Amino acid sequence: MLTLQFIPYSEVEPLETSLRIHHLLDIVKQDKIVLLEGKLETEEETALLEQTLEGINHKFKGIELSYLEAHPENEALLQKIRHTLVHLLLGNREGFTVIGPANVIKEIKRDPHKIQLLTNEHKKR
Amino acid sequence: MSSFFGQVHGFLKKLFLRRRHIKLGIYGPPNGGKTTLANRICKDWTGEELGIVSNIAHETREIQIKEEITITYEGKELSVNLADTPGIATRIDYEDFLRYGIKAKDAKQRAKEATKGIIESIKWLDHMDAVIVVMDSTLDPYSQVNITLIGNLEARKIPMIIVANKIDLKKSKLRKIQTAFPQYNVIGISAKTGKNMDELYKALFEVAS
Q1: pLDDT score at A79
Q2: B193 in any annotated domain
Q3: Which residues, other chains included, contact B27 with Cβ-Cβ below 8 Å and sequence gap of 6+?
């Protein structure tokens, strides 16, 4: 069974980077796919990558990660200013981030406007 | 007083030698052709290759360095310490290596070394003066590894060149990478055949200046 867990931005907002990453990875390691409201900062993505790699073993094989923009990059200047202000006031909560365990997600296909999750076929035991 | 002489020395050196020295990293996802490119650069300017190329992902599991490569372009010289790094990935499954006939014990060891190599590569980013990001032009450029890597380089203010490799292949889609990263000069090359390497060397001088 595929489990998606939605995490609102407010749930991770008060956490500092390492705790935030730890929290997200804990959920992913339970074979759940995280749908996080908003976007991780660049340093958070790096920390997520490092913590993921440090945790890889024969059971946990890493993650698949992707981010879907809420707004196109070539939007009008006024819109851009508005979104920058929203970002400054409310934090990085626009768009959403998908993080899933590599043993569940085979591949994430992304183009600028959509994300496709391809899952691994469940092996018969 | 000594700093004054140091400044004069630096000025004269810049004026007459027109030579710079940079630490150049080759980064990107696995199997993009990083080692093939490193070998091409080394072969072009030193006559020797740097590393072993393989179809199996994570062949390069340690950073490999070639020091003091002198590249020349239009009368200028650039001295380069070239670092070929392990492919950056968010997943490593030892079972993927079994398909290539690698024994389970060796596959697990390979996965362990690959993991360690990626962590090292990321830490080494801070030592780089410039980076060549190598992407496989036959694959989807919107992978999170590419995006995270470029975001990291931007955040650290490290100049970069994006290389769309494997343009000798029919499936190559250079335009797709150019569309994905419109703010960068994306150079299509074939590290294997040497196609368009001059463009890359030219870009390297622009980045290093």
Answers
A1: 72
A2: yes
A3: B34, B85, B88, B121, B125, B131, B132, B133, B134, B149
